Amino acid sequence: MLLAATASAVLMLLQQAPAEGTDWDAEFGVEVKERDPVTGEIPVEPYEQSNANAGATPYDSAALARDFGGREGIARIAARTVDLSEADPRVAAIFAAHDMVRLKRTLGEQFCYLLGAGCDYSGRDMRTAHAEMGVTKADMNALVENLQAAMREAGVPFAAQNRLLAKLAPMSDQVVE
Amino acid sequence: MPAAPLPAELPQIAYVPVLDAEVEPTPIRRAVPPVHITTAFDEDGVQSGKARLFKGGKLLLTNGVSTVEGSSGGGIARWATIAGQQMPGGIGLSAHATAIELPDYGWRSYGVAVGFGDRLELSIARADFDTRDVGAALGIGKGYTFNMDTFGAKLRVAGDVVYGDPWLPQIAVGIEHKRSRDGALVRALGATDDESTDVTLSATKLVLARSLLVNATVRYTEANELGLLGFGTTAGAGYALQFEGSLGYQLSRRAVLGAEYRSKPDNLGLGDDDWMDIFAAYALTDHLTLTAAYVDLGSIATFSDQRGGFLSAQVAF
Q: Which positions 217-276 of B are in contact with A (Cβ < 8 Å)?
């Protein structure tokens, strides 16, 4: 017993400290994902792209798309929602491990598609996109508030804001665990 | 300590085979507060055991305002909403005070409600109904004030007022146990009981596409003027189904305009009318909501045209 303890203590003392600047990712075989130099997005596993992934049928109303400032306005609102949520202590932890560049694009596409502003949605479906994130209904409410803040800043009329939320709210079952 | 001479071959820790092994990915779960923390204060409110007190999390106004009977709802109609701003796993609180000024009467009510998650609401409220000059005319004394206590419970059984299937409203069942504190007088007026229990079934949904809040409640009750004038009659009138409906239009996150209707039995034959109101509710802060309404309570104890102003304040956490 004493011998074994002494032997292991000696072994520990004899260990060499790892060299400075060891590439631990390579050492442990961690696959490093490079951002795409053009889009700035981290590549994802391939999946079937379809507008059906957006989770609802789009509106067909030019006036509604105009209320949101068209495609550019919608993209800005989506990006602002992501920025606000990333900085929101209630939900920041959910966003920390995800690709915000890609999220801003796909969220913008989803809003643009649902509002009938002439985009296709190229993201994943809601269940897959939120799998194992552990989103709660309280988190959903925080996201809604951030989206409302972004829409308010962009001057979207309240009734129009609610029409977008009307498309998103029924998706809660696929988002909340 | 001088460095010992190194052996020719350094011992190695056999980590490679272990780390290269295929590992089943474990699902990521949100961190749950440790169970051993019994009570702690932080910026998120109060932690007690596993329940979070007053952390909030509800969308503004989705806890409703407070009814004259102390439940979460509109001013006069009960809704399926749960009082307080808590989310699942949390405990919330709301308190209200309401005043109604009518040509011949004055109404004051106040109470508190506790919400457990998005599931259960328990409430208690006191109503004081001042008969002013009418008291003398009715022979019960000028300024005679009827008092009633209401103990409420409400359980959400299905749906969500905001999320989920747009055709599935939030549905709740509940009771309101009422105790008139004027037993001898209400019996003299012809009521059989000074306490009774209403049973309610409510459905409430925020129709986002129209910015419209829709509520319908059926109430099985034998109350005369909500119970201020007792319950049932010696003539045999008893329980009957009554209806409460509300429509609210969301002007903004903080403001709602709406109208309500509530049917009431006329067991005592004193000309009890159905009640209605038009209201405006405004969330002054995230925790303070003011409601102002114009109410038409019809005839009360034979004095007709009781129309007036309704003002209510609610504090919720």
A: 250-253
Burial of B12 (0-12, 13-18, 19+ CB in 10 A): exposed
Backbone φ and ψ of A144, nearest 5°:
-60, -45
CATH number for the region A51-175 comes to 1.10.490.10
What is the Cα–Cα distance from B300 to B303, expressed in whole angstroms? 5
Structure confidence by residue, pLDDT tens digits, B56-102: 899 999 999 999 999 999 999 999 999 999 999 999 999 999 999 99
Lookup: tokens for B89: 């796993």
Domain ranges for chain A, please list them: 51-175
C-alpha span between B211 and B250 (Å, rounded): 5
B160 CB contacts (<8 Å, ≥6 apart)?
A137, A172, B118, B168, B170
CA B220 centroid distance within chain? 18
Q: Which residues of A touch B (CB under 8 A)?
A: 11, 13-16, 28-29, 93, 132-134, 136-138, 140-142, 144-145, 148, 158-159, 162-163, 165-166, 169-170, 172-173, 176
pLDDT digits (tens, 9 = 90+) for B228-266: 999 999 888 889 999 999 999 999 999 999 999 999 999
Q: What is the CATH number of domain B59-316?
A: 2.40.160.40
B147 near B126, Cβ under 8 Å? yes
ipTM greater than cut 0.90: no
**Single-letter code of the amino acid located at B174:** G
Dihedral of alpha carbons A93, A97, A101, A103, sign: negative
Write down the domain spans for chain B: 59-316
Inter-chain CB proximity B118 and A133 less than 8 Å: no
Give the separation between CA A68 and CA A75, rounded to whole angstroms.
10
| B294 contacts B269 by C-beta, under 8 angstroms | no
Q: Where are the alpha helices (DSSP H) in A2-156?
A: 2-14, 24-27, 62-67, 70-86, 92-96, 100-114, 126-129, 137-153
